[in-house]
Specification:
The complex is a heterodimer of chains A (83) and B (301).
Chain A lengths: L1 E5 L1 H7 L3 E4 L8 H11 L4 H4 L5 E4 L2 E2 L11 E5 L6
Parallel strand pairs in A: 1-5
Antiparallel strand pairs in A: 1-2, 3-4, 3-5
Chain B lengths: L1 E4 L5 H11 L6 E8 L3 E2 L2 E10 L3 H16 L2 E9 L1 E4 L3 E9 L2 H18 L2 E7 L2 E4 L13 E7 L9 H12 L3 E8 L3 H13 L5 E5 L10 H8 L5 H12 L12 E4 L2 E6 L3 H11 L3 H8 L5
Parallel strand pairs in B: 1-5, 10-11, 10-12, 12-14
Antiparallel strand pairs in B: 2-7, 3-4, 4-6, 4-8, 5-7, 8-9, 13-14
The chains are: A alpha+beta (83), B alpha/beta (301).
């Protein structure tokens, strides 16, 4: 199971802070995970078009073609605003 | 040393702790404290609620501290950031930088706070009389979608794993919506640089090549000359805009000799070698780049 976590506006939009999802084996990149979300309907579908979406895999910023697996922690959040 | 905590910090105690680990050759300690302002575009702000990503926050803060150590001649850096419910007027963040020379300490301190605001997974929500609002990133969104970009780091000493400027540029290019087609690191060798820039322009047909490093007045700083040797028309105004933006951070920006020029329809821009300088220079002209490329291909305004 992949651990999916959300922060800030995205956490409020989705309504949960984290969940666990069994990823099909073909969902093995960040981009494919976004595609997978869009097939799941609400609330996951709205992640894909969230403005200024940032993605981290195992607590490192990730890009569209970065690999991921069913054991990873994948975080979705808006642009950061600390300091 | 980096720390995330709910409770307030004491400037005196933090400086004392810093002084314990630095020697008598310290020439100055610069401190920055960010506090909760009591007003915003939403009116009176009563408080902020700060959320973070436990674990990743510490990872990103540690990276910034390490980059500051690598890029500036500093003796120590200390970052403390608070989370949770903070009333107007309360402290949010403390940055301490110790160095032998004050300019280094000022530059490094600014680097740390600027980077922190860009990359550390912390989010602020304002509690105001009219409601609660997440603080949004209000910088205009740059749209580079469809652009294929190459990053070339020039340095005799840096290696890929310590290429902080390349890392920062890569993240910014991705945030702008463009594709990183290729990224490499070369020593300050004119022939090698010319060969690579030519190949990336003519064979890979990249839209944009960003170089970082080798723009200063040192004898090994030859990036502008190497770029000029293989390009046609220059865009001097781009260099002027970048230097003007850099001057708001440090007078050393005047020493960057970076140019922007076209080889065919590939735009090559020389950015300085420091991570903060490279990023700030790029951001000062980022919105113009799609327009330049559009015109370089023969289209009108």
């Amino acid at each position: 199971m992949a651990r999916i976590v959300f922060f800030a506006q995205l956490r409020e939009h989705i309504g949960i802070s984290h969940t666990e999802i069994a990823l099909p084996p073909q969902v093995n990149t960040v981009n494919k995970l976004l595609g997978f979300f869009s097939t799941l309907g609400e609330p996951y579908a709205l992640i894909v078009n969230f403005p200024r979406l940032q993605i981290a895999v195992n607590q490192q910023y990730a890009r569209a073609d970065d690999p991921l697996s069913d054991h990873d922690e994948i975080a979705f959040f808006p642009s950061v605003s600390g300091g | 040393m980096v720390r995330i905590q709910a409770e307030d910090f004491s400037l005196t105690e933090e400086i004392a702790a810093l002084q314990n680990i630095i020697g008598a050759n310290t020439g100055g300690i610069v401190s920055f404290i960010g506090t909760v302002r009591n007003s915003s575009s939403h009116g009176t702000v009563h408080a902020l609620v700060i959320e973070h990503y436990p674990g990743m926050t510490e990872i990103e803060l540690t990276k910034i501290a390490q980059h500051a150590q690598q890029q500036f001649q500093i003796l120590a850096v200390r970052i403390v950031h608070r989370i949770g419910y903070l009333n107007a007027g309360e402290n949010i963040v403390l940055i301490l930088v110790a160095a032998q020379h004050r300019n280094t300490a000022f530059d490094a301190c600014r680097f740390v706070i600027d980077q922190l605001k860009r990359s550390v997974p912390l989010w602020k929500k304002e509690i105001t009389a009219s409601g609660e609002y997440w603080i949004e990133d209000e910088t205009p969104k740059i749209n580079w979608s469809g652009l294929r970009v190459g990053i070339l780091t020039l340095s005799d000493t840096r290696r890929r794993e310590s290429d902080a400027s390349g890392d920062i540029l890569e993240k910014q290019i991705r945030d702008n919506g463009a594709e990183i087609a290729i990224r490499e690191l070369l020593p300050d060798d004119s022939a090698q640089i010319q060969e690579l820039l030519t190949k990336w322009s003519d064979e890979l047909r990249l839209d944009l090549i960003l170089t970082t490093g080798g723009t200063g007045p040192g004898p090994r700083d030859i990036t502008p000359e190497a770029t000029r040797a293989i390009t046609g028309r220059e865009l001097p105004g781009i260099g002027e805009l970048m230097r003007r933006a850099g001057l708001s951070q440090t007078r050393n920006a005047a020493l960057s000799r970076g140019i922007a020029a076209l080889r065919g329809t590939t735009l090559i821009i020389n950015l300085p070698g420091s991570p903060n300088g490279a990023l700030q220079n790029l951001q000062s002209v980022a919105d113009l780049i799609p327009h330049i490329l559009h015109m370089a291909r023969g289209a009108g305004h």
